[in-house]
Amino acid sequence: MALSLPAIMRTTAARLSALYLLLFALCAVLLVFYMTSLSARMLTAQTQETINDEVLGLARAYQRGGLPVLVRVVEARSRQPGANLYLIADANGQILTGNVQSLEPGVIETEGWTTEPFSYQRFGEGELDRLRSGDQAAPSTGTSGAQSEGEKGHNAIALVLRLPNQMIMLVGRDLGEPERFRAVIKRSLMLALGMMGLGGLLIWFFVGRAALKRIDSVSDASRRIMGGDLGGRLPVTGAGDEFDRLSENLNTMLARIAMLNEGLKQVSDNIAHDLKTPLTRLRNRAEATLAGKHKTTDYRQALEGTIAESDQLIKTFNAILMISRLEAGYSSETAGPVDLAATVSDVVELYEPVAEEAGVVLEATVPEAVTINGNRELIGQALSNIVDNAIKYSTGAAESPKVRVTLERAGGEVKLSVSDNGHGIPDDADRARATERFVRLEKSRSQPGSGLGLSLAKAIMTFHNGRLDLLPANPGLSVVMSFPSRETH
């Protein structure tokens, strides 16, 4: 997707790249000026030290033999190759000896170090320039006409001294080598600055644009999801970077939202279909009671039936609310250490009269103590629902109906299973559907109930980070509640 420059600069990646590039450029420019000035100071100090050493040597020569020895030494050193400058002039500034042919005006008029680098020409360079240009005029040996020539010459710094006989001695050093060194440093730093800028642009082009494309793909997927495509997911490239981790987390969140929306849709549909029958029955009973003349006992029976039917509806709504709260991960119930053995014993003791009345043998195989992290009331409610279903659906299915509750450890889990020898649920698809809300299989239509018992048990197991499995018991059905052990929970 092509973007204009203003649109690109509104992106975070482009702004960060521009800020980093600006920061690098400022640092590089400051580094260029700092290194250039530092090298200039170091070279100037080194040059001045070299000039001082030369002056000391010439001073010792002057002390040994006076002006004649000094002139001979200056002439000898002037003929040696190197960057040092030597000049002896009279009191009027006329050059007498040395390797300097001309100077800028005013250089030797002030004693001491020259304040600024000055231009000069070495001995013989002016004559060579005139030969090259065809000018055969006589050379000047003074300093008066050297300004135009000196401007085309070299640069140097020097120490100007007044001798006792008012003669002038200049000892200096050419700055060509330091200037070349400074130029090399400046070019190197400028090249480094250019490479940094080019590198920043390349990094933005290859890395920043890739990040922008990733962000654009995430934005496109988000717009599709907001447009109603709840099955859409954010792209994951498999690189394992921050974008992939963010996309994976958001996809997990979207899957959770989709599951909750599907559950909400199912609840709405189930309420519309499955709760319509008891409400219609409740209304018909009240209408039939009011239709004719009845005795007081008839009205009382009708009201008692209405209350019983209302209580059943309230239980159904409470179960739906509890399932929704548990599936959403929000519940006011607190978790703590729970002794499953004691919970199983309490539930079995509670349902023993019910089982005995139905002609079902209820047995339990429970160790001394098995402790997990959970909520005792929720676990007891789930186990009660499962035991109640096992007693109801094993009645009349065998000559000696039996329900067995077993508690055991298996690896890193604690398994609580309720098995019966009834008809069971032979079909795998029916066993998967049995835990959905308001689902009642054909063989269970004759039994009272709302189809929420196993749904609530499944929601409770999800709340406890466990699972609910429906397995064939051959014959019958085995409902297994698998809890993580207390150490791994």
Automatic annotation (TrEMBL):
<keyword id="KW-0812">Transmembrane</keyword>
<dbReference type="GO" id="GO:0016301">
    <property type="term" value="F:kinase activity"/>
</dbReference>
<keyword id="KW-0472">Membrane</keyword>
<keyword id="KW-0418">Kinase</keyword>
<feature type="compositionally biased region" description="Polar residues">
    <location>
        <begin position="138"/>
        <end position="147"/>
    </location>
</feature>
<keyword id="KW-0808">Transferase</keyword>
<dbReference type="InterPro" id="IPR050428">
    <property type="entry name" value="TCS_sensor_his_kinase"/>
</dbReference>
<dbReference type="InterPro" id="IPR003594">
    <property type="entry name" value="HATPase_dom"/>
</dbReference>
<feature type="domain" description="HAMP">
    <location>
        <begin position="209"/>
        <end position="262"/>
    </location>
</feature>
<dbReference type="InterPro" id="IPR004358">
    <property type="entry name" value="Sig_transdc_His_kin-like_C"/>
</dbReference>
<dbReference type="InterPro" id="IPR003660">
    <property type="entry name" value="HAMP_dom"/>
</dbReference>
<dbReference type="Pfam" id="PF02518">
    <property type="entry name" value="HATPase_c"/>
</dbReference>
<dbReference type="Pfam" id="PF00672">
    <property type="entry name" value="HAMP"/>
</dbReference>
<keyword id="KW-1133">Transmembrane helix</keyword>
<dbReference type="InterPro" id="IPR003661">
    <property type="entry name" value="HisK_dim/P_dom"/>
</dbReference>
<dbReference type="Pfam" id="PF00512">
    <property type="entry name" value="HisKA"/>
</dbReference>
<feature type="region of interest" description="Disordered">
    <location>
        <begin position="132"/>
        <end position="151"/>
    </location>
</feature>
<keyword id="KW-0902">Two-component regulatory system</keyword>
<dbReference type="InterPro" id="IPR005467">
    <property type="entry name" value="His_kinase_dom"/>
</dbReference>
<feature type="transmembrane region" description="Helical">
    <location>
        <begin position="12"/>
        <end position="34"/>
    </location>
</feature>
<keyword id="KW-0597">Phosphoprotein</keyword>
<protein>
    <recommendedName>
        <fullName>histidine kinase</fullName>
        <ecNumber>2.7.13.3</ecNumber>
    </recommendedName>
</protein>
<dbReference type="InterPro" id="IPR036097">
    <property type="entry name" value="HisK_dim/P_sf"/>
</dbReference>
<feature type="transmembrane region" description="Helical">
    <location>
        <begin position="189"/>
        <end position="207"/>
    </location>
</feature>
<dbReference type="InterPro" id="IPR036890">
    <property type="entry name" value="HATPase_C_sf"/>
</dbReference>
<feature type="domain" description="Histidine kinase">
    <location>
        <begin position="270"/>
        <end position="487"/>
    </location>
</feature>
